[in-house]
Design brief:
The protein is an alpha/beta fold. The chain has 2 domains: 106 residues, Death Domain, Fas (Orthogonal Bundle), CATH 1.10.533; 134 residues, Toll/interleukin-1 receptor homology (TIR) domain (Rossmann fold, 3-Layer(aba) Sandwich), CATH 3.40.50. 43% of the residues lie in helices and 8% in strands. The protein has a 5-stranded parallel beta sheet. Strand 1, helix 8 and strand 2 form a beta-alpha-beta unit. The longest helix has 22 residues. It starts with a helix and ends with a helix. The N terminus is likely disordered. It is found in: Cytoplasm. Keywords: Cytoplasm, Immunity, Inflammatory response, Innate immunity. This is Myeloid differentiation primary response protein MyD88.
Length: 297
């Protein structure tokens, strides 16, 4: 793959600069690219480095690799697991560098253009919105990110801020309502961002979600259940929060298990301490522990 494909070459006259792939988290890669990576890396071949070689380069130990080996798509599972294991270090640029070091130039040649396109789309979603023309340029006014919540200043001067963004699926709304009662309407007096209650309709859901998680909320609570595993929105929100490396290192994301589960707990969260609502022995301490976590600076 040449320099232009990797995003490291110099753009031609009038061409936009290629994205800095070292600054793009792995969450930018869409499903089709991940599936294609699996087709290359899953087969065990003596002449080419496979997913196990990539796992070893990432520091996975023998037992961890054996656990991944039991998965139907171990390469995809490895890419899901990596951001939770190494918050902030799981970037597209790092993945490409490892594939290059392993000699998988076939993957780079085939997928380089598609990977760069995914990265461009991800960075476009994260670009700050255009400013509203104004005589007084000292007052920051935005078109898209002003007036996105019920108590926002529509001119963007004083955006509404929250203690925590609540990541949940619709089938767990009753648990979220209990969370509101226990954390907002008690002595804790926390301010939660609940999408169905606090966000106004009419704007791009992905842009709003990114804005709220990254800039408006100090923490994020992930409500885990079997239904959560089937939610594309929850998957995006969780991976986006994990991609924010400073927040991930400072206890920003708090997983909460709200129901007994038939499926395996999400691998990208298994390195983070869980607050378990389903354990009858510790349930009486549940809300206090969660509130104290959210009150931390």
């Amino acid at each position: 793959m040449d320099a232009a494909t990797t995003g490291s070459g110099s753009p031609g006259p009038g061409s936009p600069a290629p994205p800095d792939l070292e600054a793009v988290p792995l969450v930018a890669l869409n499903f089709s690219v991940r599936r294609r990576l699996g087709l290359y890396l899953n087969p065990r071949a003596p002449v080419a480095a496979d997913w196990t070689a990539l796992a070893e380069e990432l520091g996975y130990e023998y037992l961890e690799i054996k656990h991944l080996e039991a998965q139907p798509d171990p390469a995809a599972r490895l890419l899901e697991d990596w951001p939770g294991r190494c918050p902030g270090g799981a970037t597209v640029g790092r993945l490409l560098a490892l594939l290059r070091a392993l000699g998988r130039h076939d993957i780079l040649a085939d997928l380089g253009g598609r990977i760069e396109e995914d990265c461009k789309k991800y960075l476009q979603r994260k670009e700050p919105p255009l400013q509203v023309p104004a005589v007084d340029s000292s007052v920051r006014k935005t078109l898209e990110m002003s007036g996105i919540t019920t108590r926002d200043d529509p001119y963007g001067n004083t955006p509404e801020l929250f203690d925590a963004f609540i990541c949940y699926c619709q089938k767990d709304i009753h648990f979220v309502q209990e969370m509101i009662r226990e954390l907002e309407q008690t002595e804790f007096k926390l301010k939660l961002c609940v999408f169905d209650r606090d966000v106004l309709p009419g704007s791009c859901v992905w842009s709003i979600t990114s804005e709220l998680i990254e800039r408006r909320c100090r923490k994020m609570v992930v409500v885990i259940s079997d239904d959560y595993l089937d939610s594309n929105e929850c998957d995006f929100q969780t991976k986006f929060a994990l991609s924010l490396s400073p927040g991930a290192r400072h206890k920003r994301l708090i997983p909460v298990k709200c129901k007994s589960m038939k499926n395996e707990f999400p691998s990208i969260l298994r390195f983070i301490t869980v607050c378990d609502y389903t354990n009858p022995c510790t349930k009486k301490w549940f809300w206090i522990r969660l509130a104290k976590s959210l009150l931390l600076p």
